[in-house]
Please model this.
Amino acid sequence: MPDVVAIALRFLHIMFAIAWVGAVIFGVVVLRVVMPKVEPPSRKAVLLRLLPVNLRYVPLTATFTITFGVLLYAYLDYFNPVNIDALLRVKLLLVALFLAVGTLSFGMAVPLRASTDEACQRHQCRAVTAGPSSRSATSGPTSSRSRAR
Model:
């Protein structure tokens, strides 16, 4: 009789890995390639709905993939150093685990820092360009509102 726990752990590990890769591909293809072709008013509305979902989904699926992979190897007793055959597998598994966790950490830290820096630069640029002369040069209902502030 097949081991039900091992099969369930393998299934969960593979399904979350597929979801992880799918979310990354979605983020690259849709958000990077297709979105510049969408008109700006629609683009903002779509990004405000899709980007938070994708930013939560990718790290969650990556974490579950790594967790179920570690649980699977622990359940199959591949971490047991007594087993001579498993020593090479354990070393390779640990290298893969460190690479996966390192890649996940790097992938979460660098874009967040870059987006924060970019937002700060945009804010400073707006503060410099939105001086008193630009307010008086505008006409219509927006200029009366800006003067009231």
